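USER:
I wish I could look at a protein chain and see how it folds. I am handing you a single protein, as its sequence and its fold in token form. As I understand it, each token names a local backbone shape. I hope you can help me see how the letters and the tokens relate. The protein I mean follows directly.
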Amino acid sequence: MIVISARQHPGEHNASFIMEGLIRALLTSPDLQTLLLISDVHIAPMMNPDGVICGNSRSNLSGLDINRRWAESELNDKLTPESAALKYHMSHNLNGKVLMFIDIHGQSSSNGMVFYSNDSNIKQQQDTIAQLGKRIEAWLQMRLLPKVLQKS
């Protein structure tokens, strides 16, 4: 599963344009059509609609930055319902089988795109050949999306 979110920070308007372009590319690009055949993609295009409507820059209606509220101790259905709902969806409805989580932000001072990702740590594992093959496949999938997006 791939989960994509945007607009955790309401003031990052350009994240909406990036998300719109990504959705269009997912629906029209032959390369990304292949991605949809091998993985489910779950999209939360605007994580903080209340903050956007109220004109907040970084916070939700509770005055909290939901991008900094992902730890279990900080999740709260009342104060951060946005991140709590998405985290619940990923852990319960997707059974925790999230290969990649992409959180789109918009930077006004930077050009291009920046990707951070988790490291699959292949070298440190004592895997069988079959397990290693699965880990390499997951590693390739994590690094494939930035390359495909670069071409789209």
About this structure: The two ends are 21 Å apart (CA to CA). The CA atoms of residues 12 and 106 lie 5 Å apart. The first strand starts at residue 2 and ends at 6.
